[in-house]
Design goal:
The chain contains 10 helices and no strands. It is mainly alpha-helical. Helix 7 crosses helix 8. The N terminus is likely disordered. Keywords: DNA-binding. This is HTH-type transcriptional regulator BetI. One of its GO terms (molecular function) is transcription cis-regulatory region binding.
Length: about 220
């Protein structure tokens, strides 16, 4: 690919647009080749820029993935705010949350890679920014959870949402096994290992919420 039409972004607006162009290019690569196929060279080729130019906006490929994860996470919170308008049962809340995450494959895959991969190849400044943004969104989510489950205290609602993060990160790789494991699990002997993400996530969230509710009732 040639880059004869490439021009360095100089104004704030141009830099913001270049940043967004790179994010959109990364999105396209992810949709086509998955996380494993996301390289800075692939992003540069799709965006029509030289690879070295990406470093003006992102320090590593993982920094790009972290931003995409955060954007997807914000979408979940925004949808949650729209749908939770009144008090709900724990099971209804669990179903809504499970559906919201299950419908976002990219988010779930990236959440499963935060601790083992994504946060290990970025600077402390990048991680600090990500964690602050994540906490801010979790606080938004806790307000919504309290709207639907008014018996939850603020710190409990925050803990619930952070626990859901752990559930998603743990369940996603287990419920999306490699082709070799898919073949193995099709054998009757190993069938118990087959799990579906949405029902499993629903079960974990439901059990967690019902447990919290029961503790409150016992201590009342």
């Amino acid at each position: 690919m040639t880059y004869q039409n490439f021009q360095r972004a100089r104004s704030a607006a141009a830099k913001a647009q270049r940043h967004e162009d790179l994010i959109q290019a990364a999105t396209g690569v992810l949709e086509q080749d998955g996380v494993d196929g996301l390289t800075l060279q692939a992003i540069a080729s799709r965006a029509g820029v030289v690879k070295s130019n990406i470093y003006r906006y992102f320090e590593t490929r993982e920094a790009i993935l972290v931003e995409l994860l955060l954007r997807d996470f914000v979408e979940v919170i925004e949808e949650l705010e729209k749908q939770v308008t009144k008090e709900m049962t724990p099971a209804a809340m669990a179903q809504l949350l499970a559906d919201l995450f299950a419908s976002r494959k990219r988010l779930c895959e990236l959440m499963s890679q935060i601790a083992p991969t994504l946060e290990k190849n970025v600077s402390i400044e990048c991680v600090r920014h990500f964690k602050r943004a994540l906490l801010a969104e979790a606080e938004r989510a806790s307000v919504v959870l309290q709207r639907g489950l008014p018996w939850l205290r603020g710190e409990e609602a925050m803990a619930v949402f952070l626990s859901i993060h752990v559930f998603v990160a743990g369940l996603w790789p287990i419920t999306n096994p490699s082709p070799i494991l898919v073949t193995l699990y099709n054998e009757q002997e190993f069938a118990p290992f087959r799990q579906e993400f949405a029902p499993a996530l629903f079960g974990l969230i439901t059990a967690h919420l019902l447990g919290l509710e029961s503790v409150k009732e016992l201590s009342a």
